[in-house]
Amino acid sequence: MASFPPRVNENEIVRLRTIGELLAPAAPFDKKCGRENWTVAFAPDGSYFAWSQGYRTVKLVPWSQCLKNFLLHGTKNVTNSSSLRLSRQNSDGGQKNKPREHIIDCGDIVWSLAFGSSVPEKQSRCVNIEWHRFRFGQDQLLLATGLNNGRIKIWDVYTGKLLLNLVDHTEVVRDLTFAPDGSLILVSASRDKTLRVWDLKDDGNMMKVLRGHQNWVYSCAFSPDSSMLCSVGASKAVFLWNMDKYTMIRKLEGHYHDVVACDFSPDGALLATASYDTRVYIWDPHNGDILMELGHLFPPPTPIFAGGANDRWVRSVSFSHDGLHIASLADDKMVRFWRIDEDCPVHVASLNNGLCCAFSTDGSVLAAGTQDGSVYFWATPKQVPSLQHLCRMSIRRVMPTQEVQELPIPSKVLEYLSYRI
């Protein structure tokens, strides 16, 4: 397991500048809480970007138009500015799939967002139902919003219309994630200590309740092949679930504080978890080994200090789609960009009061949300992946660690395929 190296000269680390900002409109009244932007999300096809502006408002903007606005008007794009406002209308007919801006009133404070897209050949798992209220086509794009009152609302991205209202959680819905396989299976993580599995192709029927967390569940993420789910929460909890059988695979031990974010690598061979203990761990989800530790405090804190108020809580972590880079966001007002083969940041950026981050679908931009409901964007480090890395990702997409270790290949190649060098 790698650890954070001796302190790096700050002059050697490249500091990035934002390429754009989406600033939340000024609140009509002053509130101490409720304005936070807990989640930012990009549509799977890259067509839309969504974020919570605070209180109960979610904004959907066409991502390509958003980037164009940054180029035309500089970095700042105040979301209530009429001069920069994107065209917005309820679309129908031939205009349905043309990206349009929407502002959605969710009715309560929004804690989580997730996009889901449909693949027609992925049928509902509920085979006994012959009639459905909704028949989602190939071009369907949905947005799920998790609310303060425990409800989950499902919206049509193209029209901004409410489709479903899922009611079963008893506390805040802290995170949402759709299965990447187009099945429209949705998993929700809540402060009521449970994860719930919903089948949107069966009109939002709740299929299963996953129990095991003894405290709040903060985040959840599907593996790229949709077979595995990671959930993280308070009391150092990191759980892995088999999503074919809905059973727990294993609990990962290693963090010293609440674990608040998780993300799989694009090939599913790595799992990143972020914790208030100042660390991001990179795990092998197939055997539970910690492969790397990305430290946010030097020297690394003792377990007692890491488990308390250390001023370096890591709030969010995200894997880039190239499988080479990771972004993390911490309370020290820094966004860090890491490489999976280096244990110190390769780039950093300044950000006050950051709460969440996510890479764009093509991996070229990182978006980060803040406590005041705004979003900031950075161009991500550019690097052409090596042929070896591309081959490794291709192999690991279809082979778990146990199968890789059985291959009759040289030990160095085996270590490389296992992300141990």
TrEMBL record:
Organism: Dipodomys ordii (Ord's kangaroo rat)
GO cellular component term, pick one: cytoplasm
Keywords, in A-Z order: Repeat, Ubl conjugation pathway, WD repeat
Domain of life: Eukaryota
One GO MF term: ubiquitin protein ligase activity
One Pfam short name: SOCS_box
Pathway stated in the Swiss-Prot or TrEMBL entry: Protein modification; protein ubiquitination
Lineage: Eukaryota, Metazoa, Chordata, Craniata, Vertebrata
Domain SOCS box: 377-421
The protein's name: WD repeat and SOCS box-containing protein 1
Cited PROSITE patterns: SOCS (PS50225), WD_REPEATS_1 (PS00678), WD_REPEATS_2 (PS50082), WD_REPEATS_REGION (PS50294)
Residue spans of the WD repeats: 136-165, 166-208, 210-251, 252-293, 314-348, 358-378
GO annotation terms (biological process): intracellular signal transduction; protein aggregate center assembly; protein K27-linked ubiquitination
Gene name, Swiss-Prot/TrEMBL: Wsb1
